[in-house]
Amino acid sequence: MTNKTLIELLKSVSFIGFDVRRSPKPIESIVMPPERRLASLLQPNCPTVLSADRSIWPSVFYNQESYQYVENKFTDDIIISETLSDDYFQAFDLWEELSAMLQAYKESSTGDCGVAFGLVKPNYYANELISDDWFDAIYSESGVVPPKTAIDWPLLGFDVVNSGFQSAISGFVLKDKNALEKKWAKNMNDYCLFNSRDQALLFNEHANVDYKADGPFYTLAIFLLWDTNGELKTRANKNILLDSE
Fold first, then answer.
1. Strand (E) positions, 88-163?
2. Which of 216, 220, 238, 242 is the most exposed place for a label (fewest CB within 10 A)?
3. Tens-place pLDDT, residues 161-177
4. How many domains does the chain have?
């Protein structure tokens, strides 16, 4: 990706926060067993499954109230009390300030990845954006200002999620799976994320119709800050485009 293309991409998203996710390979068999791959993934043979969805790519951070509902717990999960975080983390499960996240961070025993999330701005959607209270709140309240080093953050790809960060790409049992794979899998990368912002936005329209009861859905760009295990660095920019060709 050229600097010009990346600058254009950065202009098209509003950064909504930071997180630390567990290195995917050591936990893959736990969060994405073969039966879930076959039922839920548009590209079931992708080497590594990444997602904004915490049930697929778990965070190391949880607030006290929500932790009781976490399906896959790890011994080195970091529980953030209300006194140790601001209202933003408690509301959105994301860190508004990178410096605050780094203060709370302890390296995971099995490795971890720092990530930043950028929400594609409303004017880039083909149709009028369907918003809910979550979108209105996070889009208006986020004070996330990426540092100048953001220009060097590798783009991992684009996910399509609802306000609970459930991924329409990999978080549902797929209907008409063969037809969906045929139509969309070619537009996905090695992480089971969309290569292209435009293709992700097209799938976003599909998700708003096919999973209407769970929507509305939004398109997120996922950027890599660090990777302690080195699993993602060599493939971070592979075949990732801003727009479909």
1. 112-120, 155-161
2. 238
3. 999 999 999 999 888 88
4. 1
